[in-house]
Design brief:
The complex is a heterodimer of chains A (456) and B (264). Chain A is mainly alpha-helical. Chain A has one domain: ABC transporter involved in vitamin B12 uptake, BtuC. Helix content of chain A is 68%, strand content 0%. The longest helix of chain A is centred in the middle third of the chain and has 30 residues, at 152-181. Chain A is globular, with a radius of gyration of 24 Å. Mean pLDDT of chain A is 89; it is low at 445-456. Chain B has two domains: 1-85 and 176-264, 3-Layer(aba) Sandwich (Rossmann fold); 95-174, no CATH class. In chain B, the strands form two sheets. Chain B has a six-stranded mixed β-sheet with strand order 6-7-8-3-9-10, sandwiched between helices. In chain B, strands 2-1-4-5 form a four-stranded antiparallel β-sheet, covered by helices on one side. In chain B, helix 3 runs parallel beside helix 6. In chain B, 45% of the residues are buried. The model of chain B has no long low-confidence stretch (mean pLDDT 89). The chains are: A mainly alpha (456), B alpha/beta (264).
Chain lengths: 456, 264
């Protein structure tokens, strides 16, 4: 038995490079000049794209294993950021994130799987369904606004009826559209426009987007009644949600009408469309959207609910709404992450979405710092490259079963961190782009009429 | 200042609150004209804070009616009542501890921020303009309360007296017509109390407010309140000017107990 020191060295360097890369990216995005921002963004994307495109076969800088880690780190970041929004920024302890991740993965995978098997109903069904459900939800919401003090369960029933009607309508419309769309795939000898590589890329983009929206809509229906529970009870209820979703996945071919998902055997044949461009793009969208939401009046309302619910209410904030909103946005991110993941890995097994694995994003956000986006980003990438990358391979040199020791080592690391630095690595600190703009004191204390004269 | 056409700012009649079998507040009544500065006093456990919690919607009302500017607010959600123009501070200060002083005040503008989440995500011109306006208004507010130099401090790091001031500033930033202060002088030293009394007077005149305050410090109550309502065991036992209250036998009894008959 001999430990390969050169390998250890290179692996450590890789982790440092990855974290440095993330830091540089955030720093550049936080630069005052727009041109530096755009340039930095293109450079950050381009460097890795160039390595992927032009590395020689015999001396790979990023091998397939590292490539896998990079993509998994991207999706894990999206999921963990969503959870941090729910738990770290809004204070609602949720174990449901992994369920929404699974929903996103299966929804997106089903769309593209059907597409590659010349069936457009996946796309049309989910697209029309998601739109109609959204219309139903917003419609019911507007209707309810007129009746003050309606009990939550009554409101929930109305939303549920709206959703069921929307889904029934979707089945009719998608079914009716299908004969018109089927010929566009063409035959094996004469492929139609739908069968082209470009069509698949576009469908993939919408599949991921729709996966996020589906996860968000389900989280709305689930969160509406459940978020009225106190924090611990909410945690248990969301754990139940993840278990229910997992059970449905295991029985997707028997309990649900989705034979292509193959239940517990796992879904195979998902086109591997995720490339560095898509992973980078979706991660960037999630980071920018979350940062922009947090640094706004909406973000302050979200934080105030975490800080003190009663005080938030008395400041005019609708606490029920501002628990639901981060929950829905967080689930949307999880859905997007799931969609990207499914098309990178090409194979979905219900085991991946087991609730025990679902603790990983929770550990990551606690490790990085609850209420710190930067902490979550660093911790997700660090987690993947250290735990799954470095530790697994090092331990692998001690025998085939040895990598399991990492599940002993990382809880010990976590324990030490909680003892030595309970606020997590970064606490609530942010880096570069994610930092709140520093506001200078007002020099000219003008007599603002808005302040001096009370508004009637 | 008061015109007869204006409805009373606050009108409470027959207000009752049960906690299980305990009657915390019974048949409470109160009327405040616009511009009033009134006090609500009573021994510990008399039900004063419960009244505040019912006015602001934090507690559900068991019976009775609360009218604000002529409109019934009984049964409304706390955030709806705030949006109508009722603001309050808390007995045990409830600031957003891990947010800066500026953000504490900026939260008060949320309901009329003037931009939505989509504006924020896309960073539209509306977002920039409104966010700047909110920030400047909040900063002007802090300047009035001489807090402009600590705007970037976390609220939890401030000394007690400043936390009180931030809480009052935050309540006023929501642009209320009625301000409820729950023991604003609690835990303050005599010098801070003098400053506080000046502040309350200043705030009432500058923002044209009606103020109702709960207080145990008799200096404050007798010094600034024009009307006083006294509660004991959930019931109103006396009302009147500070002078009348000071001479009221029932009030003295509630605070100090009954004299022993026959004792010399």
């Amino acid at each position: 038995m001999e430990i390969n020191l050169g390998f250890l060295f290179i692996s450590t360097i890789k982790i440092v490079v990855v974290l440095g890369y993330l830091y540089a990216l955030l720093a550049v995005l936080g630069h005052a000049s727009k041109w530096v921002q755009i340039g930095g963004l293109l450079a950050a994307f381009g460097i890795i794209q160039l390595i992927f495109s032009f590395q020689p076969e015999d001396a790979q800088i990023i091998n397939d294993f590292d490539r896998g880690l990079l993509f998994q780190a991207c999706t894990m970041t999206m999921v963990a950021l969503g959870l941090n929004l729910i738990y770290g920024f809004n204070g609602q302890f949720s174990l449901g994130q992994w369920g929404f991740y699974g929903i996103g993965a299966y929804a997106a995978a089903d769309i593209t799987w059907r597409w590659t098997n010349n069936d457009a109903r996946g796309l049309t069904g989910v697209a029309i369904g998601a739109t109609l459900v959204a219309v139903a939800i917003f419609g019911v919401r507007r209707l309810i606004a007129r009746y003050k003090g309606m009990p939550v369960m009554s409101a929930f029933t109305l939303y549920l009826i709206g959703t069921i009607v929307a889904c029934a309508l979707t089945m009719l419309i998608a079914g009716a559209l299908d004969p018109a769309l089927k010929p566009l795939f063409g035959t094996k000898d004469a492929p139609g426009i739908f069968a082209s590589e470009w069509a698949l890329q576009i469908v993939f983009f919408f599949a991921v987007l729709l996966a996020g929206i589906v996860a968000a809509e389900i989280s709305f229906l689930f969160g509406l009644p459940v978020l009225t529970l106190g924090s611990d009870y909410f945690g248990i209820a969301t754990l139940g949600f993840t278990i229910v979703i997992n059970t449905l996945m295991v029985n997707s071919d028997t309990l649900l009408p989705f034979p292509e998902m193959k239940g517990g055997r796992g879904m195979i044949g998902i086109p591997k469309v995720t490339n560095w461009f898509w992973a980078f793009l979706f991660l960037l969208i999630v980071v920018i959207v979350m940062r922009n939401v947090l640094h706004s009046s909406t973000g302050r309302a979200i934080l105030s609910v975490r800080e003190d619910e009663t005080a938030a209410k008395v400041m005019g904030i609708n606490v029920a709404d501002y628990k639901l909103l981060p929950f829905v946005i967080g689930s949307l991110f999880a859905g997007l992450g799931g969609g990207v993941y499914a098309h990178f890995i090409g194979f979905l097994s219900p085991g991946t979405f087991d609730f025990l694995v679902g603790f990983n994003p929770l550990i990551i956000i606690v490790f990085g710092g609850l209420g710190s986006m930067s902490g979550t980003i660093f911790a997700s990438f660090g987690w993947m490259f250290f735990l799954e990358g470095l530790l697994r391979t090092i331990l692998g040199q001690f025998g085939t079963e040895a990598p399991t020791w990492r599940f002993v080592l990382y809880p010990i690391t976590l324990l030490l961190l909680m003892l030595l630095r309970p606020q997590g690595l970064l606490g609530s600190a942010e880096v570069g782009f994610l930092r709140a703009p520093k506001i200078a004191a007002r020099t000219a204390a003008s007599d603002n009429p808005a302040v001096t004269t009370p508004v009637k | 200042m008061t015109t007869p056409t204006l409805p009373p700012t606050l009108e409470i009649a027959g207000l009752t609150k049960f906690f299980g079998g305990l009657r915390a507040v019974n048949n409470f009544g109160l009327a405040l004209k616009p511009g009033d500065l009134a006090g609500l006093i009573g021994p510990n456990g008399a039900g004063k804070t419960t009244v505040f919690n019912m006015i602001t919607g934090v507690y559900q009302v068991s019976g009775g009616d609360i009218r604000f500017q002529g409109e019934s607010i009984t049964g409304l959600e706390p955030h709806e009542i705030t949006q109508l123009g009722v603001a309050r501070t808390f007995q045990n200060i409830r600031l957003f501890a891990n947010l800066t002083v500026l953000d504490n005040v900026r939260i008060a503008y949320h309901t009329h921020a003037g931009y939505g989440m989509l504006d924020a995500i896309l960073r539209t011109a509306t977002y920039s303009a409104k966010e700047k306006e909110i920030t400047e208004r909040a900063q002007d507010f802090l300047a009035i309360f001489k807090l402009e130099n600590i705007q970037n401090e976390f609220a939890k790091n401030l000394p007690y007296g400043q936390q009180r001031r931030v809480e009052i500033a935050r309540a006023l930033a929501s642009n209320p017509r009625l301000l409820l202060l729950d023991e604003p002088a609690a835990g303050m030293n005599p010098r801070e109390i003098v400053t506080l009394m000046e502040l309350i007077h200043f705030v009432r005149d500058r923002f044209n407010l009606t103020i109702l305050l709960i207080e145990h410090q008799m200096r404050v109550v007798m010094g600034i309140c024009e009307h006083i309502t006294v509660m004991d065991f959930g019931e109103v036992i006396a009302r009147g000017t500070p002078k009348e209250i000071q001479g009221n036998a029932q009030v003295i009894e509630a605070y100090l107990g009954k004299g022993v008959p026959g004792a010399a």
